[in-house]
Amino acid sequence: MNAKTAKKTQGKSQDLAYATKNGYDRVSPADLKQSDAINALYMDFIAKAKTEREAHDEAVLLLEAAGFKDMARHEAGSIRLMPGDKIYRSCSGKTLMAVIVGKKPMEAGLHIVGGHTDAPRLDLKQNPLYESGGMALLDTHYYGGIKKYQWVTIPLALHGVFVKPGGKKIKAVIGEDPADPVFCITDLLPHLAADQYKKTLGEAIPGEGLDVVVGSMPGPDKGRKEKFKYNVLKLLSARYGIKEEDFLSAELEMVPAGVPREAGLDRSMILAYGHDDRVCAYTALKALLDLKGVPEYTSVVLLCDKEEIGSVGATGMASNFFENTAAELLNLTTQSYSELALKRALNNSWMLSADVTVLFDPMFPSVSEKKNSAHINHGVCISKYGGARGKSSSSDASAEFVAEIRRIFDKAGVVWQTGELGKVDQGGGGTIAWLMARYGMQVVDCGVGLLSMHAPMELAGKLDIYMAYKGYLAFLKDGRK
Ligand code: MN
Ligand code: MN
Questions:
Q1: Could you give the strand order of the β-sheet that contains 442-447, starting from the edge strand earlier in sequence?
Q2: CATH number, domain 23-119+273-477
Q3: Model-level pTM greater than 0.90?
Q4: How far is the CA of 157 from the centre of ligand 1 (A)?
Q5: Which of 4-8, 213-217, 241-245 has the lowest mean pLDDT?
């Protein structure tokens, strides 16, 4: 309900009750038109951004085109940033922070929307290539929480980089161009699966059973051992100028091949790889790009790496990248850096932790508690808390902050709902929220609900995607009371 209708219907007894509604019953034709436009752009983005590096590079292209400047060129303090200035900073080509300087000094706090661009996938091992049974295969080590049985028999594409000892970086993508070959992992035929059927879902395909078939033709070299493997090396060498040793300093990911597709006869959904969490990352980025005028508070969008494995590492949210960049920003806006001012800035900040959540699934109703589960097309979802086993490890947002978000969203006509990740003691999950809450800032999880989360193809509702964009934009733009 928005503020206007609340006022109009005040006093009627039914307004005492709360229930979420399908957003399609509540949005204007203008909203629907804009939803189509945003979703088309999002589909373009995720078709190109299938790894965190690719998402980073695509985001940088969009930021540069919108006039954002690379902070690395100004870290020495050669410039003074003024309200309205647009800047971004990269962390190792994977994590990214983009900023529009606000009217108020940074000490008043930042408005941050933070999502992540890494997604569950199969990473190649450091020494991955071998042959067996007259085929060449690549050995993998899965990344993030996958259901391993879902990754066999589907077309896979290889994305990543080889880095030569001299620093030369070679980008590789095989399997996306329709003229490219794809790869796959084999599964056992049902005829011989008597033993496999007895295993649990988690055991039926073991982690070491996710090796990818990449060839079955022996090379022509006479007298050479491992002709199948060597043939693959020759093809890779011809395409990228690499040799087997170059796998040692590479980051190569096997991801589902193909482009995102509209789903449903009504085209109301998007079926795609990596909605988690590019759907929130992109809508946050797009909101920042579309922010008109100078915001009251400095607007920040974070696109992070490594969320799916606990936000660890130099490019994860647990690193000091965000804090260090905030320090640089403070220095560039005030030219008089002080640690106290930085601490105040972070403490006074507001953040939407933009990550996906679960949607109620009619195929699996028992895992959700219906009135506290997000429903498809009921809007962007706010989760006050996550965690598991009695909210353990949850960054429980304060009621006061949730009330502020209610105010901002209702004023802007954002269709939104609340949702928990499953019923109590069913499981649970976390986001980057708690890592930012350490600074004392106000943080709440706010993102798009998904079906089949972490599967090779995830399903999301277009209206929810659009409402995430609309909500993030309102949050970045809106001053505080
Ligand atoms: Mn996520
Ligand atoms: Mn995830």
A1: 69-70, 86-91, 95-100, 298-304, 110-116, 350-353, 442-447, 380-383, 416-418
A2: 3.40.630.10
A3: yes
A4: 22
A5: 4-8
